[in-house]
Structures are given as C-alpha cells and as structure tokens.
C-alpha cells in the first residue's frame, strides 16, 4: 500500500508539471512602484518599461504612486492599478477636482511628463485590459488637422486595428479628451465602470472605426462638450451598445452620427444641457428606456445633417423613455432633418418648458404612437409644411397652450384637411380647433 501510494503521488506530480496542465499554468506577473515605498520588492519603477519587457499575457500590477510617463501597449497585457480605491470614489462629488487632491500613496496616478501631443496610454494590441488608474491632466486644447478634420489627443487611445479591449474602473479627469475607443469588432471591446469627469469630451471614437463594442455603467460629470460622441464624419461605428451609463451636468450627453446598429438603452441623463443629439446617417438607431431630466436645452433632438454627413437618419426607434424638466423640447425632429421611417412610441414626456414632441418640415412617414405628453408648453405639434406622419393614440393633457397643434392644413368648403394623420388621440385643446381632440370637437 505504501509503495503504491508513493508511486501514485510521483505520477500525479509528473502530470501536474506537464505543459498545458491547468494546475501548472501560471500567469506571469510583474510589479511596478515608482518609489518602491508601497511595494518594496517591485520589479520596476516605470510602467512603460514594465510593459515593454513583460511577456504577452502577463499581469502588470501597478502600486500606488505618481507616474509621469507615456505608455504604449503593443501586446496582450492586463495592466492594473488600484481598482478598489477608484471604485470607492464619488464620481459626482460637487467639489471641483484638483490635480493634487488625491493621495499618491493610495492611487496609481498617471500624468503627462511633458507637453507632447501623446496619449497617457496608447493601446495597440488585442485583449488589453486597463483598470484601476487615475488618468489626469492631459489638457491639449489646440487640435491637429487630419484630412481637414480637427482631432484632439485623448488620455487613452485604443486603436481600431485590434479588439477585446477592457477599459474599466478608471478615474479619467481634467483632460481635453478622455477615451478614444476604436475596435475592429473581432471580439467585443468594453469600456465600463469608469468615472469620466471634467473633461471636454469623455468618450468618442474620433479617428477610430468602432465595431462590436459595449460602453456601460460609466459615470460622466461636468463634461464641457459631449460626454459620448458616437460616430463621426471621419469614422463611424457599427454594432455599438451604450447602457446603464449615468450622465450628470454634461453639456451634451450623447451625440450620434454615421452609425449602424447603435443601441442607447437604460441610461440616465440629468442636470445638463442636451440629452441625446442625433445627427445624420444613422441606420437602425434605438433609443430605449432612458431617463432624461432637468436639462437647460432639450432632451432628444434629431438635427439637420451636416454637409460632411448629408444623409438622414432612417428607421430609428425611440421608445419607453422618460423625459421631464427640460427648459426646451422633449423630443424634436428638426427642420429638414429628413427623418423617415422612425417610430416614437411609449415615451412619457412631462413638465418641459417647450413642446413634448415637435416635428418640423422635411420629415415624413414617421409614426408617433402611444406617447404621454402632459403639462408641457405644447403637447404634440407639427411645423409648417410638415406632412405624411401618423400621430396616433397619444395622451396630451394639461399643456400650457395647446395639447395638439397642426400647422399644415387646408380648408375647402368649410372642411379642414390636416397635413398629418391624427388618429385616436386623447387631448382637450387643439389647433385648428375641433380637428384633433375629441373633447374639443
């Protein structure tokens, strides 16, 4: 028995040492500490040197400290700072941030070492994970021109030649531009659980094509330009989901242009300027179940396409959203936006200073159905020369001027013919009087 047992243990030990055995596999790990004060046995004092020398697939663990350097990642690596410390921060703390207000004995802080137009982290490999850092102070307000387009330097640049990025649990603050996210879509890239505050732009793809990505559970605060700029004339996006993000105090929450298959779902936008801004060339856009409140402009705007992207947005779905407390309109489709085939349904739009739903000229063959537009300045109204839309089964009550207003109509032999199809709506006050609301007939 004893001999058998010993033989079995020897055999088991040999099996454990075989290449490919899961129990024997260990992930290479290197440790970085700028002053070796927190991690006395650190292998490196520089993140960039550790990244350069680490083997592909390694974990680069960065201890607390202040790191003034540029880091280029050109192989699959996991680069981790202090996730728990970043996660414990209140991204919406109203106290303005200062570049020296975080303790470098608790946080891994990365800042620019000089005035170069370079990103703090440049990611150019598949399956790179970047987590647990404070990335700050890359303020480069003067753009560079690329093919006639103005480009800004981001704190994190993820190249569109690769995929599988995981960028999470970072505090990215006081930069011109936070994350430039590109991906070729081979595997999903994800940016999640980041705090992006007091940047001019929080996250955009700018010069990078972005395919097959998810942007979720991030917080943006006091963004001076646009929190999420999705697609652009220079480079578009495909198959992108933005969900469960929280935007507060941003001048613009979302801007969407030149996209295919974008879903904006279950996000919150509050106390900012405009909520969601939809420009040209968006196919299959879905804006669903978002909560937008308290902005100084309007909640959702379909704007006139710009010259660089003249094609209109088509076949969009805006449904299940809650919109309240905006100084401007709830949902507006702007003049000559040329939006067609779009459905606005099941939205609850209340107590806004402008119109609940506004459709202006040049937009046709859209359906506005089953919405609640109560206690706004107007409920639902159309602009002059707006025709061919169906406005059906909506509730419009208690609005300041008219619950329902149609600006395009003709009257022949005492019969008023409206330019749009108003069917089965619940309202009290209408213009022209007696043409839309049963209670006003």
UniProtKB/TrEMBL annotation:
Keywords tagged on the record: Repeat, Signal
The keyword Repeat is assigned to this record: yes
Pfam families according to UniProt: NosD
Domain named Periplasmic copper-binding protein NosD beta helix: residues: 215-401
InterPro entries documented for this protein: NosD_dom, PbH1, Pectin_lyas_fold, Pectin_lyase_fold/virulence, SCF-Subunits/Alg-Epimerases
Origin: domain of life: Bacteria
Disulfide bond listed as a keyword: no
Signal peptide: 1-24
Family annotation (PANTHER family): F-BOX ONLY PROTEIN (PTHR22990), F-BOX ONLY PROTEIN 10 (PTHR22990:SF15)
Protein name: Periplasmic copper-binding protein NosD beta helix domain-containing protein
Species of origin: Micromonospora globispora
């Amino acid at each position: 028995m004893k001999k058998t047992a010993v033989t079995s243990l020897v055999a088991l030990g040999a099996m454990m040492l075989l290449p490919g055995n899961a129990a024997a596999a260990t992930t290479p790990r290197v440790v970085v500490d700028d002053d070796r004060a927190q991690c006395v046995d650190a292998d490196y004092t520089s993140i960039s040197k550790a990244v350069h020398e680490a083997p592909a697939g390694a974990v680069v663990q960065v201890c607390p400290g202040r790191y003034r350097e540029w880091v280029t990642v050109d192989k699959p690596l996991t680069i981790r700072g202090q996730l728990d410390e970043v996660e414990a921060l209140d991204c919406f703390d109203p106290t303005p941030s200062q570049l020296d207000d975080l303790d470098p004995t608790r946080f891994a802080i990365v800042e620019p070492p000089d005035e170069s137009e370079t990103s703090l982290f440049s990611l150019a490999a598949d399956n790179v994970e970047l987590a647990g850092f404070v990335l700050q102070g890359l303020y480069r307000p003067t753009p560079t021109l690329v093919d006639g387009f103005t480009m800004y330097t981001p704190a994190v640049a993820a190249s569109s030649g690769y995929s599988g990025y995981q960028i999470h649990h970072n505090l990215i603050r006081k930069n011109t531009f936070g994350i430039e996210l590109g991906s070729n879509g081979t595997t999903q890239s994800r940016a999640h659980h980041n705090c992006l505050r007091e940047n001019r732009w929080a996250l955009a793809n700018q010069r990078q094509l972005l395919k097959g990505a998810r942007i979720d559970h991030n917080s943006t605060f006091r963004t001076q330009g646009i929190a999420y700029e999705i697609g652009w004339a220079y480079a578009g996006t495909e198959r992108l989901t933005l969900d469960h993000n929280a935007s507060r105090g941003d001048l613009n929450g979302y801007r969407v242009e030149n996209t295919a298959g974008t879903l904006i779902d279950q996000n919150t936008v509050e106390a900012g300027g405009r909520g969601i801004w939809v420009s040209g060339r968006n196919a299959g856009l879905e804006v669903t179940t978002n909560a937008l409140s308290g902005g100084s402009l309007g909640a959702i705007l379909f704007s006139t396409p710009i010259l660089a992207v003249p094609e209109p947005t088509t076949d969009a779905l805006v449904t299940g959203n809650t919109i309240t407390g905006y100084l401007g309109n709830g949902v507006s489709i702007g003049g000559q936006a040329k939006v067609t085939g779009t459905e606005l349904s099941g939205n609850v739009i209340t107590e806004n200073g402008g119109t609940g739903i506004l459709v202006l000229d040049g937009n046709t063959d859209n359906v506005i159905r089953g919405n609640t537009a109560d206690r706004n300045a107007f409920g639902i109204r159309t602009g002059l020369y707006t025709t061919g839309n169906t406005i059906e089964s909506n509730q419009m009550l208690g609005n300041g001027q008219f619950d329902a207003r149609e600006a395009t109509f003709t009257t022949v032999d005492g019969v008023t013919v409206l330019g749009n199809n108003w069917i089965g709506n619940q309202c009290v006050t209408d213009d022209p009087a007696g043409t839309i609301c049963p209670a006003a007939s």
